[in-house]
Amino acid sequence: MRLRAMAKINLGLDVLGKRADGYHDLRTVMQTVYMYDTLDITMRVRPGIIVETNLPFLPVDKGNLVYRAAQLLMDEFDIKNGLHIRLDKHIPVAAGMAGGSADAAAVLVGVNRMFRLGLSRNELMERGVRLGADVPYCVLRGTALAEGIGEKLTPLPPAPDCHVLIAKPPVNVSTRYVYEHLRLGADTVHPDIDGLLASIKSGNLQGMAAGLGNVLESVTVSAWPVIGEIRECMLENGALGALMSGSGPTVFGLYADGGQAKQARDILCRSGKAKVVYLTKLFHSGGSTRDE
Ligand code: ATP
């Protein structure tokens, strides 16, 4: 069974406050993009989960979310067979694009189908949150508002179509560092999530692009100026809006015009500011399947 695990970007991300358990309450608009890891899942007669990946630095044991996702369902349903999972990563790792969560979600969907467990999408999402706050969204996909720690989801109408330029600078940003250094105070500039939702609901691309906002940029742009430089480069080269995704460091730009987006991609590549530069489109969940 072959599955595609799609990456996400955050069109808007606001942090409302810190909870007693150390997590933060978020309000974020998530959007799937057509950038994906490929998973080939094969049933084995002998028990055990074997994970193999193209990235030698990734764990292949319980440290990998695909292993944990498979184990979760196989334990619950007492599955005696084993699984071989070949994971080909194309989504940048630790980049704010939820690559690991997308892989985990794909495995939940794949194991459910392979062993005919009969779990509904909601039931998979309920299990997914045990693996990570973004996993339920990665099961759902498309355009959605995520609240709580990211697990309370409200599906939205598909965001207006556009070209998406994705660029990851060669810096390592730890999610923990970003949240620990976030100072929420009276002078914090919060993104207008309600305005963003209104633009999405009315299919207004210009409004959506103008409404992009991520409160975490207040930490990352000063610590890693290249994030702001990439955003500016995108805006100077025809982007309707540009923003850091999640806790970074990946930046994306939205373009109405495909030609302009290609030009911006070439300029960014030549600038040497980004290690990964990728031009793609939004992915809408309705009617699509995970199989190739
Ligand atoms: P988010 O947007 O949710 O913050 P991210 O893009 O920052 O996610 P990921 O790429 O999902 O981060 O994962 C980062 C860490 O998780 C890595 O350090 C890696 O070791 C570990 N990890 C475990 N499983 C995977 C996986 N299948 N793919 C990528 N990273 C994984």
Structure description:
With 292 residues, the chain is of the alpha+beta class. The protein has two domains: 2-155, Ribosomal Protein S5, domain 2 (2-Layer Sandwich); 163-281, 2-Layer Sandwich (Alpha-Beta Plaits). Helices cover 33% and strands 29% of the residues. It has helices spanning 65-76, 99-114, 121-128, 135-140, 175-180, 193-201, 205-210, 217-223, 225-236, 258-271, and strands at residues 2-18, 24-44, 48-53, 82-88, 143-148, 152-155, 163-168, 213-214, 241-244, 251-255, 276-281. The strands form two sheets. Strands 1, 2, 3, 4, 5, 6 and 8 form a seven-stranded mixed beta sheet that branches. A hairpin with a 5-residue loop joins strand 1 (2-18) and strand 2 (24-44).
Question: Which characteristics define this entry?
Answer:
Ribosomal Protein S5, domain 2, alpha+beta, globular, 292 residues, four-stranded antiparallel sheet, binds adenosine-5'-triphosphate, seven-stranded mixed sheet
Helix and strand topology:
Elements: E1 2-18, E2 24-44, E3 48-53, H1 65-76, E4 82-88, H2 99-114, H3 121-128, H4 135-140, E5 143-148, E6 152-155, E7 163-168, H5 175-180, H6 193-201, H7 205-210, E8 213-214, H8 217-223, H9 225-236, E9 241-244, E10 251-255, H10 258-271, E11 276-281
Parallel strand pairs: 1-8, 3-4
Antiparallel strand pairs: 1-2, 2-4, 2-5, 5-6, 7-10, 7-11, 9-10
Helix pairs in contact: 1-2, 2-3, 8-9
The structure holds adenosine-5'-triphosphate.
